[in-house]
Write a structure and sequence with these properties.
Shape: elongated
Helix content: under 10%
Number of strands: 10
Largest sheet: 4 strands, antiparallel
CATH architecture: Sandwich
Strand order of the largest sheet: 1-10-4-7
CATH topology: Jelly Rolls
CATH class: Mainly Beta
Radius of gyration: 14 Å
């Protein structure tokens, strides 16, 4: 029988003005790339906005202001999922941080 577990990790924007894979480095800490539900939260202490998209994301995308969150979800019954390694962030301030929270299946 499988169950759902909430996981999270921090992603620091290494360089503003450059799209960065949101999941890069997380897989080495046991995180799962596929999920049905992901929430991305910009820390309230961030100096600028975060932009979320594909590998072409830049500061023309809809901004995620400090302290705000955005949720991406799909129907798990449809056997659909997000591949988080295909999601990218950019931002207006190097060093800003997002918290990535997602659901993962475990065999319990």
């Amino acid at each position: 029988m499988s169950s759902m577990v909430v996981r999270h990790y921090r992603k620091t924007l290494a360089l503003s003005g450059t799209a960065q894979r949101i999941f890069e480095g997380a897989e080495t800490n046991g995180h799962q790339d596929h999920t049905n539900d992901v929430i991305i939260t910009a820390l309230a202490a961030n100096a600028g906005s975060i932009f979320i998209g594909d590998s072409t994301v830049d500061n023309t995308a809809r901004p995620l202001i400090p302290g705000a969150s955005v949720n991406f979800s799909v129907n798990p019954m449809a056997d659909d999922y997000f591949k988080m390694s295909n999601m990218f962030i950019d931002g207006s301030a190097t060093g800003d941080i997002v918290i990535v929270t997602y659901l993962t299946r475990t065999n319990a």
